[in-house]
Amino acid sequence: MQIAQDLPSPIGTTAAGGAGKEPVARNMEAVFENVTHLVSGNAVVVFTLSGCCMCHVVKQLLFGLGVGPTIVELDRDASGRDIYALLLRLSGNRQPVVPAVFVGGKFLGGLETVMACHINGTLVPLLKDAGGLWL
């Protein structure tokens, strides 16, 4: 069972044809590059919505373990809508999209995956390997 997977490129999943799609594809490519840079440059990144209870649980779990994740609250970030759209596209249009947790530059998952890793004992070693936890 593979726990983490690489962030796939959204390019090529855009509907082809028509000049009207190009600016959207370019914008999505720029958002993808920004998100890729963010998650590869930080040990733990969590994309959240400020009023989401599932996001709160993930953040509190990570804080409780001693992790200082980079948190992007999509409803308070200037490019939050675009990042949310990217996460939705990369998830295969499945709900819920947030929380979206990245560890060591790879997508770990949402609340269920993070809690499952915590319960089965794989979360702490994963965080240590990524440099997000030192103890």
TrEMBL record:
UniProt KW Iron keyword: no
Gene3D superfamilies per UniProt: Glutaredoxin
Domain Glutaredoxin: 44-107
Keywords in alphabetical order: Cytoplasm, Redox-active center
Compartments, as annotated in UniProt: Cytoplasm
PANTHER family attached to this UniProt entry: GLUTAREDOXIN
This protein's name: Glutaredoxin domain-containing protein
